[in-house]
C-alpha cells in the first residue's frame, strides 16, 4: 500500500504561495516600469517604481534558499498515476525551470543594478554589499539577460497556472489540492 502523503508540507505550501505572490508582484512592477515609464516623461517616479521593484524582488533570494533546503529534505508528493511517464517528466522539468527562474531573475537583476552603478536595496532598510563595479560592458550583457529571462519566466508561469487549473477542473485530480490541502 502506498502510504505517501498526497500533499506538500504546510511549510512548502506556505513558501510556494508567498513566493508566488512576491514573484508575480515583482514581475508586474518591473514590467510596468520597463514598458510604460520613461525617464524623459516620468522623471523621478520611474526611479521610485524601480526601487520598489528591487525591494520586493530581493525577498525572493532569501526565500529561495530556505525553499531549496526544504525541498531537498522534504520530497514532493507523487504526481497522479493517470499522468503518462512523459507528462510526469515534463512536469518535473517545468518545476526545475521555475526554480531556475527564482534564482536567475534576482541574480541577473542584482548584477544589472550593480554594473549600472546602482544599489541593490533590502526592504528599504539596508543594501547588499556591492559585488560589481560600475561597468557598461557588463550592463550590455546582463540587462538584456534580465529582460529576456523575465519574459521567459512570464510565459512559464502562465503555462504553470493554466496546467494547474487544467488538472483541477478538467482532469479533476489532486495536483492543485496537493498545494492547498493537508492530510486529515
Ligand atoms: C523575482 C525577481 C524579479 C523579477 C520577476 C523581475 C522582473 C522584471 C521585469 C518583468 C522587468 C521588465 C522587463 C522589460 O523591460 O520588459 C524588469 C526590469 C528591471 N529589473 Fe527586475 N525582476 C526581478 C528582480 C530584480 C532585482 C533583484 C533587481 C535589482 C536589484 C531588478 C532590477 C531591474 C531593473 C533595474 C529593471 C529595469 C526597469 C526599467 O528599465 O524601468 N530586478 N524586471
Ligand atoms: C498563482 C498561481 C499559481 C498556481 C495556481 C500554482 C500552482 C501550483 C501547484 C498546484 C503546484 C504543485 C503541483 C504541480 O504542479 O505538480 C505547484 C508547484 C510549483 N510551483 Fe506553482 N503555482 C502558481 C504560481 C507559481 C509561481 C509564480 C511560481 C514561481 C515562480 C511557482 C513555482 C512553483 C514551483 C517551483 C513548484 C514545484 C514545487 C516543488 O515540487 O518543489 N508557482 N504550483
Ligands in the model, by name, code or SMILES, are: protoporphyrin IX containing FE
Number of strands: 2
Number of helical segments? 6
Tell me the distance between the termini. 18 Å
- The share of residues in extended strands comes to under 5%
> What low-confidence regions span 5 or more consecutive residues with pLDDT below 50?
none
At the fold tier of CATH, the topology name is Fumarate Reductase Cytochrome B subunit
Shape field: elongated
CATH architectural arrangement: Up-down Bundle
Radius of gyration: 19 Å
Average pLDDT taken over every residue: 95
- The H/E string reads HHHHEEHH
CATH hierarchy, class: Mainly Alpha
Task: Please outline the major beta sheet.
Answer: 2 strands, antiparallel
Which percent bin holds the helix content? over 70%
Task: Please give the order of strands in the largest beta sheet.
Answer: 1-2
User: Structural class given helices, strands, pairing?
Assistant: mainly alpha
What this model shows, in words?
This protein has six helices and two strands; from the N terminus they run ααααββαα. The chain is an all-alpha fold and 184 residues long. It has a single domain, classed as Up-down Bundle (Fumarate Reductase Cytochrome B subunit). It has a two-stranded antiparallel sheet with strand order 1-2. Strand 1 (121-122) and strand 2 form a beta hairpin. The mean pLDDT is 95. One protoporphyrin IX containing FE is lined by residues 23, 26-27, 30-31, 33-35, 46, 50, 53-54, 57-58, 60, 105-106, 109-110, 112-113, 120, 146-147, 150, 153.
